[in-house]
Amino acid sequence: MAAVAVAGLAVTQVASAGASEERSRPVHDKTLQAGLEELVRDGSLPGALMSVRNREGRVTNYTAGVGDIRTRSKVPSDGYVRIASNTKMFTAVAILQLVDDGRIALDDPVEKFLPGVVRGTGDGATVDGRNITIRQLLNHTSGMTSAMPLMPKGILPIKDRYFDARELLDAALTQAPTFAPGQERTWSYSNAGYVLLGLVAQQVAGRPFAEVVTDRIINRIGLRETYYPGPGDRDIRAPHPRGYLPPKDDKGEIIAGELIDITRFDPSIAGAAGKMIATPSDVNKFLVALQDGRLLKPGGLAEMRRTVAAPGFPEGWRYGLGTIEMKLSCGITAYGHGGDADGFQTRAAITPDGRAVTVAVTNDEAGRAEVLTFFDKALCATK
After folding, report:
1. What's the CATH number where 107 sits?
2. Under DSSP, is residue 59 helix (H, G, I), strand (E, B) or coil?
3. By C-alpha distance, which of 92, 132, 347 is closest to 213?
4. How many Cα atoms within 13 Å fall on the side-chain side of residue 205?
5. First and final C-alpha spacing in the chain
6. Backbone angles phi and psi of 278, in degrees to 5
7. Do the bridges between strand 59-68 and strand 47-53 make them parallel or antiparallel, or are there none, so unpaired?
8. Quick one: 356 and 236 in the same domain?
9. By residue range, what is the domain housing residue 154?
């Protein structure tokens, strides 16, 4: 589950977009439309969709390719997609809201909220919640495993399997830590750490994590096309393009020229690290609300954008608390995230002056570099 763009400590005020100015208009940037069409030209990415909110609050939606390779139907404009690790932004905001409320401190140990729960077993015997802080989970410096031990052979064998968050955590606790928590100059992206944060938020708020996100974020800022799927929910609300993944041979190598429809599966394997579904325009609305202060106090947003080095990420990228700082080719720093769930690849970010872009394509294992290059171009555009 990859990520994309966010940084800077200064809180920049962005005008809140009302219903009238958020409405899509048929004014397309021809260069961006051509770039989106180039992404799908060879068919490895069947469909692409993008929503752009310009600096004045006007929204334009773009599509390219096909929404279904069998029927050759069009990609639905601003359709629902699995936003994968963009979910981490929502999880981080939920935690930081509890920090704003004085119910959590970023440097509190996990043990304070889940006593006796975080104790490693087997190879993970040294993992201990008394030595891991909330901040370390948020910025991936806890040392918790980057592995997903419950899906060793990918999504297909478990696509209809439901996983409870505690089951995900217990499996992660059998894995050796990547490094000691907070060890100098160490960073490792961990979905398990965000599953654990979901359990912390649930414990502190006294409600299921899905309710915490829905009540404190989604409903609070009026995101009508964003949701946290409930237990057993394997579908995506309509309209949506279909998501695909390439088949692999016995050696794990991709079989070129073929695609498997993986639109329907149980996303519980990702939990608070990557379970959510939304439309591109709604993700942009979330980014605007985050930046203009409707979700966090200035101090909370500043903490979110305090970054650490993120080895393995592209040059110029750093990780904050559930958000990434990304230096764009045009010299601007954008703020956001991104994610890869089976069948969908998404990238989302906002610039300091309020230009928000969310791009989604319907194969998470192809064209990643090309998508990032196009995403950078879309954020740097002036229209």
Report:
1. 3.40.710.10
2. strand
3. 92
4. 23
5. 30
6. -160, 170
7. antiparallel
8. yes
9. 89-216
Q: Is residue 7 part of a domain?
A: no
C-alpha 243 chain-centroid distance: 17
**143, 95: one domain:** yes
Crossing angle of helices 87-100 and 280-291, rounded to 10°: 30
Which pLDDT belongs to residue 8? 29
Q: What are 378's two structure tokens? A: 């879309």
Tokens 């995900």 belong to residue: 168
Cβ 296 vs Cβ 320: under 8 Å: no
Q: Say yes or no: 111 and 179 in one domain.
A: yes
How many structural domains comprise the chain?
2
**Residue given tokens 């990780």 in the structure block:** 319
pLDDT of residue 185: 67
- State the Cα–Cα distance between residues 356 and 292, nearest whole angstrom: 13
Contact yes or no for 272/87 (Cβ under 8 A): yes
Question: In 3D, which of 99, 164, 168 has the Cα closest to residue 133?
Answer: 99
Model pLDDT for residues 233-289, shown as the tens digit of each residue: 999 999 999 999 998 887 777 887 789 999 999 999 999 999 999 999 999 999 999
Decide: 267 and 236 in contact? Cβ < 8 Å.
Answer: no
* 194-196-198-201 Cα dihedral, nearest 10 degrees: -120
Structure tokens, 109: 């140990």
Strand order in the sheet with 356-361: 73-74, 59-68, 47-53, 356-361, 344-350, 333-341, 324-327, 317-319, 308-309
Looking at the DSSP assignment, which residues form a beta bridge with residue 81?
A: 278
Residue 223 inside a domain? The answer is: no
Nearest to 221 by CA among 285, 291, 275: 285
For residue 1, what pLDDT is reported?
36
How far CA 250 is from CA of 153, 154, 253, 322, in Å, comes to 11, 13, 7, 36
CA distances to 15, 62, 346 from 22, rounded to whole Å, are 12, 15, 21
The reported pLDDT for the residue numbered 36 is 97
| Rounded Cα gap, residues 9 and 7, in angstroms | 7
Q: Which residues of the chain have pLDDT under 70?
A: 1-27, 185
Distance CA 49, CA 272 (A): 24
Give the pTM: 0.92
The region, left, alpha or beta by phi > 0 then psi within -120 to 50, assigned to residue 97 is: alpha
